[in-house]
Design goal:
- This protein is mostly helical and 232 residues long.
- The chain has two domains: 47 residues, Arc Repressor Mutant, subunit A, CATH 1.10.10; 181 residues, no CATH class.
- The protein contains nine helices and two strands, in the order H-H-H-H-H-H-H-H-H-E-E.
- It has a two-stranded antiparallel ribbon with strand order 1-2.
- Strand 1 and strand 2 form a beta hairpin.
- Helix 1 crosses helix 4, helix 1 crosses helix 6 and helix 8 packs antiparallel against helix 9.
- The longest helix is centred in the middle third of the chain and has 23 residues.
- It is globular.
């Protein structure tokens, strides 16, 4: 068994355990026993419960980025990437729902997930051809995290086989982000309060309708939104 296969087995067992017994009872050792995995190796690769969640976010990102769209507008590519990530969450739906239930009682865990989610949104941006570096990149990651949060709220109540409700929510959120981008791009020059020297409003960090091309120059796995309950 490769390291990746070991990690996938333990993460799957952990989320199944969370769905069956509640997330507060989940541990790397318990997941390893459930999956028949070596406890010593589990201790080495998953020293804390948080490491299970970080690996889960990494797998979700890998699923989204594998086979992602290379053509179309940035907006289309972002929609594709986010829905691929939701597809991965859907395969562990019971465990994810159980996790979200305990977040209000575990604020430290919620903050960790928020940080991981912002990082994941950076990968979604890069996968769509948008730079996630620098100040503009940080703004873009948090903007996309809000889109993800809106999708998460819909996903929580989406019982459709093809996640129709989630797709509609993500589509609406991207449209709103697109409208905000357009307003920034059309904003007139403003005066510098320090010296009345005109300067241009910065271009929006998330140009949804930009044609495919190289990432913008350089400007933190539910990543991100300040509401931990919107993070997966």
């Amino acid at each position: 068994m490769s390291d990746t296969e070991f990690d996938q087995s333990l993460v799957t067992a952990a989320f199944t355990m969370g769905a069956d017994e509640g997330w507060r009872l989940v541990s790397a050792a318990g997941a390893a026993r459930r999956a028949g995995l070596d406890l010593v190796l589990a201790r080495e690769r998953f020293p804390t419960r948080a490491s299970i969640l970080m690996k889960f976010g990494e797998f979700a990102d890998q699923h989204a980025l594998t086979g992602a769209m290379l053509d179309g507008t940035v907006r289309d590519r972002l929609f594709d990437l986010l829905m691929r990530r939701f597809d991965y969450l859907q395969t562990h739906r019971g465990g994810v729902l159980a996790l979200l239930k305990v977040l209000p009682l575990e604020p430290v865990l919620g903050l960790l997930l928020a940080r991981v989610t912002v990082s994941s949104m950076g990968w979604m941006l890069e996968g769509a051809g948008v730079s996630g570096e620098g100040v503009r990149g940080e703004i873009a990651k948090r903007g996309l995290a809000l889109v993800w949060a809106m999708g998460m709220r819909a996903w929580l109540n989406d019982d459709s086989a093809d996640l129709t409700g989630t797709m509609a929510a993500v589509d609406t959120a991207l449209n709103r982000a697109d409208a905000i981008a357009a307003r920034f791009e059309k904003a007139p020059a403003m005066a510098d309060p320090a010296g009345d020297v005109p300067f241009e409003m910065p271009a929006d960090p998330l140009p949804m309708d930009a044609p495919p091309g190289p990432a913008a120059p350089p400007n933190p796995d539910l990543p991100f939104p300040e509401d931990p309950s919107a993070v997966a």
